[in-house]
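lol ok so funny story. i was supposed to be doing the assay writeup but got distracted and ended up predicting the structure for this chain instead. priorities right. anyway since i did it might as well share w the group, maybe its usefull for someone
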Amino acid sequence: MKSFTLLASLLATVSATAFPNHPSGPPSGTPNPTSTPSSLPGPDLAKITSVPQNSFQSYPVGGLHRGNPHSNTTSHVTKRWTCNGSPTFTWGDTDNGGKGILITNGDSAGWRGFYVYHNGCDSVPYKYIWVNAGETEFISLPDQFEGRIVRGVDSSMLSGSPQLLASWFEVSWDQNGVAWGDVSLIRGCDGGVLMWSTDGSGAWKGFTQWILDGAPTGAYDMKNDGQWVLKATENADGSLNTIPRDWEIQQVGIEYVYVDDYHGNPVISGNDGRFGTYWPAGRP
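and the output, tada:
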């Protein structure tokens, strides 16, 4: 009986860890899931994406404060915080109508992790959340927050080292409480992200289609967890990787995402200080 119990335990461990990018639930050690809040209402994607891009205001940068900008952009980083030594975990914050982000996990495979980083604080997330398949949760963020949200897994994102290779949902709030945001593929692409204003303007950016397969040779890079994704379109010195960039222009378009720092108007604002986001299947 003891040997059978040991074997069952080992099999359960292998099942839970062999494919860290496809967890059946939150990782071991995550706070008790019995405290998970009820899912908030999900988005109507068809309604959101039916709004023509020329019917709302889009910006090259607008009031967005972006992470790791180059000197030839109009954005900048003004660091007004101390980087976290450890992240805050949440199953979903109380949505009282204040500023923050709605996160919908559109990956039917199961739970997914999402990690919030302050600009200039790339090693440790400010906050992170796990959301079950098809559910929507809310994350509140402080006044004039500047940073990004990315998908990932705890084994990489909580390792204490920067994990930049991902699709970035960039967001910041100005002194008037207006939210500014975009979807950026400059640091890589591990799947689609759709984002939209909730202020009634109809503004939206990003994409939901699968673009990770079929790209030309030279378009791929490997994440620390072994997942092959589209590589960064710009290197640390500002030089361009045109193979992944041109693939993303072809598959998505410069009006919907940042493919580099030199094309399009992918930034929108939210006068109510909120955005909704939808994260389809990707390679976390």
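The CA atoms of residues 196 and 216 lie 30 Å apart. The longest helix spans residues 2-17.
back to the writeup now i swear
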